[in-house]
Amino acid sequence: MVKHYNCIVCSKRTKPKERRSINPAVKRLLQNKWFITNISQNYIICNGCMHKYYNAEKSRPLKVTRTAQDDCDQDFIPPKVARTSKQLPSPPSVCLNIPGASNSHARCVVCKKPGPKFLVVSSDARFQAFIDGNVLIPAGARCCSSHFQENGFLKTECFDIMSKSENSSSNRTSIVKLLTHMRETCQKTQNKIDFDNIGETDCKTLTGLSHQQFEDLCLHVLLHIKSTPSCTPKTSVGLFLIKMKCALSNKLMSTLFKTLLMRSFVPLYLGFESITREQIIKDHTRPLAKTLLDADDDNMILVLDGTYIYIQKSNNFSFQRKSFSLHKSRPLVKPMVVVSTTGHFVAIIGPFLSRNNDASILNHMMKCNVDDIKSFVNDKDIFVVDRGFRDSITLLEKLGIKAAMPTFLKKGEKQMSDADANTSRMVTKIRWVVESANARIKNFKYLDRVLPTNQVPFIGDYIRIVCAISNKYLPPLSKATNEDEDINLATQMKQKSREINTLKAYVEENNLQEGQCSGSQYRTATFPFHN
């Protein structure tokens, strides 16, 4: 009868040339690492197993004293599967006082519903579940797709369900991986603002928006921004807002996010196409303005003014001359701001070079039909402007648009008449809102500083972005608390503007004008008080 010689490790039948006797070193290796006991001198090992395990033992850089507990926790390869190179993790042996989920592949770890359409919970999602919900989810666990957020993490309500489970068990390898992941996360977030988990106070201080408003703004662009290991979509949004709000210096301003905001967010909240005439008349027109200007219910009131954005001196001599303002004695560009009587930004036109005054910009807007403005305004609409638009009055009248502007001193006069002064006051009562709107733009400190010339092509987009943010998230600049009170105030102003100035009449009757009376007459004169 032929005797068969099988390998003690892989149980493979060996040929005479493949047989190797077990020397003391191999015997010690088999006993200590692979738990093969009762090895006699008649046992043999094949060439493959001997070289595989003997060379692996020799390549170990450091010899560590092993204990019984180490043998229990150490990952090992049973003799039955020693022919494969994949190591199996040790079974869970450490009981933790932390709720844990099952690692079943047939049921969802959250709702326990049977499969088969499940998604594997990623390592990042499992780590986030431990951080946010104090729940341990084992590797390889499955979950329904409805429990995931858009960013791949589990929803918050899932943690409440899994937290009711019993305590979890884990092995040493999983615990070490968890601690390593936590350490790496702490190193990444050290001295760094995490916009994905930013607090209410920090969000308001850095961006000027509340946490809810910041999240809403991010929803407009999250689908268009790719996440990178160093910058998430919310981080891109936060950095841009910090740049606009705090004007921190940097060498390069990325225009990628600005382009996405201009395409996804600004058209919804700024521009003639973002709002209708009816909405402006109904929701963004103060009764005070309608009463003072005698506007009908179908007349739209807009307030226009230009603002200044200062820029550095250009090396291009032609552009330097065109951008230099003789009025301010420095280079600048001028955007035209169009707002409603409540301070709602309707449109931003431009910016234009400083050699263009307000009147020439408005004439250009109407003649060239910039942004299709002619289809937005109708006859008998009212434009509230300042004296810098005086050269546009004729054009506006030809188009059927009424212009409300403070009056000028007539030739030869040193003081305005009562009627002209009162008219100017009523126009100023309405027009102040555009000055406050310009100040709201400058609250974003980046636009209140001197910008480099390489940012000139993007100034218009920056202003439109901050104006759209103001329309969406900030309260109106001017809004009546009570419509009846607003109308009563306007009625009193109009009534008092038509009253006779008794003080002026008394001065004229007694010849108390400057240069027409002596000092004694002026001191002894009794002036009536005008109530």
Descriptive notes:
The chain is α+β, with helices and mostly antiparallel strands. 40% of the residues lie in helices and 10% in strands. The strands form four sheets. Strands 7, 8, 9, 10, 11, 12 and 13 form a seven-stranded mixed β-sheet that branches. The chain has 21 helices and 13 strands. It has five domains: 16-81, no CATH class; 94-189, no CATH class; 200-264, no CATH class; 276-494, Nucleotidyltransferase, domain 5, CATH 3.30.420.10; 500-531, no CATH class.
Q: What is the CATH-assigned architecture of the largest domain?
A: 2-Layer Sandwich
Largest sheet: 7 strands, mixed
- Percent helix, as a range, is 25-40%
How far apart the termini lie comes to: 135 Å
Short description:
This protein is of the alpha+beta class and 531 residues long. It is 40% helix and 10% strand.
Entry keywords:
alpha+beta; 5 domains; seven-stranded mixed β-sheet; two-stranded antiparallel ribbon; 13 strands
Secondary structure blueprint with pairings:
Elements (H helix, E strand, L loop, with lengths): L18 E3 L2 H9 L11 E3 H12 L9 H6 L20 E6 L19 E2 L2 H11 L8 E2 L12 H7 L4 E4 L1 H18 L10 H8 L3 H9 L13 H14 L9 H9 L1 H4 L7 H7 L3 H6 L8 E6 L2 E2 L6 H7 E2 L4 E10 L5 E9 L4 H10 L14 E3 L8 H6 L3 E3 L13 H25 L16 H15 L9 H15 L4 H8 L9 H6 L7
Parallel strand pairs: 7-12, 12-13
Antiparallel strand pairs: 1-2, 3-6, 4-5, 7-10, 8-10, 9-10, 10-11
Helix pairs in contact: 8-9, 10-18
